[in-house]
């Protein structure tokens, strides 16, 4: 099916199942421990052996010698894979890292060897018997030190142009009556999903099946084929349940490659779970950014000049953290200069983490807007409203498909009680707590891409949907089933969604906030085809056929849907493809975040007291799972604002705090009740569902809202995230 | 042995300083200390009760309770998130008290009564806490969820039994299942998806108190 003109009325608009707050369909499995994650498949045939990775102990250099003889002789050991035995390995198309070190070591904890043994305990013990002599060489580990020489990034497949020039920024900035020029830093951050990267790999002759934990099945097959040098057709990946990803499990990581190699070497299926302590330096992360924001405005607050320069580093061939993305479309302003600089660093690879670009970009831009509002003497909400734009500022002929930005701001301000904001910093107390309010805008792209699905109508009338889309906690199972239920006119419990199998019809998987919109459109297309088959089978001739209540109705005649399949199961497969609507319209999601914090006037401890997110993301397919996506983003935003940082040891070249005690993420005690509101809107330019993703929108803008609240509470501006005690304790207001 | 080797490594690493090139040896033992012979594999018998069922196992003594459950009894509802007591995904109850099953060896539990998520309820017969998690959407990816639920059940029991916490205003008073009290006690169970707000609602629902 082709979608190239904005949707009119569709069967989805009935909203009898879609748009309703159905609990997750897989809830009974997840809450009873019976959902099976990657390392939890037991009946795969053959005796599963255990793999254990030894990570490199240097940041850069080479393996001078490696002696596995003691490990080879250790009890239970079946095979050891190193670069000397692995054979040639390629690299994936999305991640540029090499999955196995040797002889060169590219980054700390890059895998040096995999030990396969009969038990986990044996494999772990044997890995400690491998003797590696390293020749360590000087590496580059410090973005600040490299910044001055970093060139503009080359053209990249994601994130838009590295340099955008509109109008004459320099002249407009120099002429602006009110200006701001500040530099902000966002540190290296870890996805830190709860389920470690894990794979069970099994070879059947030349055919490789892997039970794994990745977000994009199609990229996974592609990248694994490239790395192993085998045909894509020989690979099947299965990820029915994924214990969180946030971009960190986009495609193939070392567990998948090394499990496959280990299983081949051992002649047995191999289970390999990345140790938690390896995850931070072995896999990808969100790379640190240094961002200079320059804003020039008239005294009315209207921006005339917007400059955003972004520096990040990566392994050779790696991408930037494209923090300038949100600045392109959020605010008006005739003169714009956005640049991304990239330098080479010998740390683990930087790559996509939830809202790549937008999340760190907004942490800088929205703190800058808060500072500008103060210089202008304007309310921060009013400043944003004054800079709303109905068109793409780079292409004034291109309107937004929908843009409920101002509505988000006004709704949020009203619901939060923004008018009660302390007018000047450090002016409100509640006992020993300094109280502050802060807010920030939210924006995230609303991409959509070709996705397919197969729908079966069983003789019983049950509907089965198969697609390679994954569910990493996002709600895919539920919204896929809801879409099919709405389209086929059956209750939700008559639909079963089967996901996360690369042998199913292809989708873009879960990533870039495009999963929900894309897959539901694919399911729509397949269901539309199945409806045609049903209509034909049942002998209906008019086009007023209605699918509802398990029945098919037309011109006064009603028959059960199941009767269409009485002679045998009906199957339809289709995909949704797109025309140029995304070029004609700027398709984005918008929001506004509001925060109240308390800062202990003696100790400086920050407590988030309240958070509100107001989001506009087209049709909300399921208010329960969509809200959870948003509160998840808000929680991650608390982490970004106040605690999350992978600390770089610039001497030895590693992230030092590589576990969940050192890399602090929010816990229960950090998170108050979170409030979310959705703007009631549909976007007919997206798909017949008129929906957009929301999972990344919920993160963008949260951290700066909290940061701005800390400023409002204390009068201390910290431009270096996370806002930790060491950066402001000595600057807190005098005790009175 | 591993700890010794790490000390060795970091001392050598420090000595290497910022020299442009240095040889760093990452080996379990230095040249000065001869490699000890790997001990012959041994296994020890252990028996305990899991979810009301007596289980007898013969285990490598290095096997954690977590791995005994997951790998030997195929009870994979109990999750391995970090394998060293930092995330809470492996929370189970031993004789009614919650513990991190990754931080304890299976052979230490001779005769104990262990309750895992599978013992609380099943998809067809949910425990009230499991049902409340579904109702309030107190989970997303589901990986920390069994640990959260085991902890939540145990926390309400701890509050009922009067086990104090440091967020109580009065340490000698009977604790109440307030929002702050429950969040404090649940903070050893990390949820990276960020379902905390909903978990608090689910627990409040089960506790029968308004948070």
UniProtKB/TrEMBL annotation, chain A:
Keywords: Molybdenum, Oxidoreductase. It holds the Pfam family MoCoBD_2. Residues 1-29 are annotated as: Disordered. Residues 32-138 form the Aldehyde oxidase/xanthine dehydrogenase a/b hammerhead domain. The keyword Amino-acid biosynthesis does not apply. PANTHER family: ALDEHYDE OXIDASE 1-RELATED (PTHR11908:SF132), XANTHINE DEHYDROGENASE (PTHR11908). This is Xanthine dehydrogenase family protein molybdopterin-binding subunit.
From TrEMBL, chain B:
One of its GO terms (molecular function) is carboxylate reductase activity. This is Aldehyde dehydrogenase iron-sulfur subunit. Transmembrane segments: none annotated. It is an enzyme of class 1 (oxidoreductase). Signal peptide: none annotated. Residues 44-120 form the 2Fe-2S ferredoxin-type domain. Its EC number is 1.2.99.6. InterPro entries: 2Fe-2S-bd, 2Fe-2S-bd_dom_sf, 2Fe-2S_ferredoxin-like_sf, 2Fe-2S_ferredoxin-type, 2Fe2S_fd_BS, Aldehyde_Oxdr_Iron-Sulfur, Beta-grasp_dom_sf, TAT_signal. Keywords: Iron, Metal-binding, Oxidoreductase.
